[in-house]
Design a protein that fits this description.
5'-nucleotidase,  domain 2; 2 domains; single chain; alpha+beta; five-stranded mixed beta sheet; 29% helix; four-stranded mixed beta sheet
Length: 275
């Protein structure tokens, strides 16, 4: 089975077909590559991973030969693109186990939102109490083993920028009540208890939210005005745009871990409890 991402979207085509149409999205899927033997290429194994094309005929790694249909053309496009894709094949980290994003919390979503919080605080000089990130913005998983630059670029394909939002406690509570009744997003800095789609408890820094206190919230600009039905800007006392992409925030943290000889891994905790 081959784990296929958009950066290698044509691999899915070659794995499934010999010449039929297809479509692809940012979702990670598994494809049976038994017919072609195609697998994700690294910087130094293009021919072994993808095969080769000679005089309009595609010779697949499995030994199969395709001279008709769209398969040879698609194979040629993918193979010719490899030099441009080579920088994305850089190994930037090692993950002892795979990490995926899932509701109500996961290692990957927790890692992402906690990175948003720490980076936003560093960039703005403001105290960040809470982090909010939409699950839909994390588009694929971190694989077990070597983690490529490609994995992170594919994980965060959108131009989402880190933002700081100052918000009163009562508005923060209303925001979490809304998420509890519909869909709780990835959050950090909080302890949330939800029962029957209702917010039972909301603590920040171990204490119940003070309705009159101003809290610093780190998030992305997509959630300011309507993204995933959130409008963080509506009740904001202040907004600071950092100009830093979410992708670059995550990459910086991963590079830091690798430079320190640490693996890419994270944890679950008590930030969200569903009763």
């Amino acid at each position: 089975m081959v784990k296929t991402k958009v950066i290698a979207g044509f691999i899915l085509i070659l794995a499934i077909v010999g010449g039929c149409g297809t479509s692809y999205s940012w979702s990670v899927i598994n494809a049976d590559a038994s017919r072609t033997g195609v697998k994700p290429a690294k910087a130094d194994n293009t021919e072994q991973a993808l095969g080769y094309v000679v005089d309009g005929t595609y010779y697949a790694p499995s030994g199969e030969v395709y001279s008709q249909g769209a398969t040879p053309q698609l194979a040629s496009i993918l193979i010719k693109a490899q030099p441009q894709m080579a920088p994305l094949k850089e190994v930037i980290a090692y993950a002892p186990k795979s990490m995926s994003s899932s509701y109500p919390q996961s290692e990957l979503s927790n890692f992402t939102v906690d990175c948003i919080m720490s980076t936003t605080q560093k960039l703005t000089g403001k105290k960040v109490d809470v982090g909010i990130m939409n699950f839909g913005g994390i588009r694929c998983s971190i694989p077990q083993g070597d983690v490529l630059l490609d994995d992170i670029v594919s994980m965060f394909p959108f131009k989402n920028y880190l933002v700081y939002v100052a918000m009163e406690g009562d508005d923060l509570r209303e925001l979490f009540e809304k998420m509890a009744s519909s869909k709780m997003q990835a959050v950090g800095g909080v302890e949330v208890v939800i029962k029957d789609d209702k917010l039972e408890s909301l603590k920040v820094g171990g204490e119940e939210v003070d309705d009159d206190k101003i809290y610093g919230v780190a998030s992305i600009d997509f959630l300011l005005r309507g993204g995933d039905n959130l409008n963080l800007a509506d009740e904001a006392q202040d907004i600071i745009y950092t100009g830093v992409l979410l992708k670059d925030c995550i990459l910086e943290k991963i590079y830091e871990l690798s430079a320190a000889g640490m693996p890419l891994e994270y944890h679950l905790d008590d930030r969200i409890v569903i009763e």
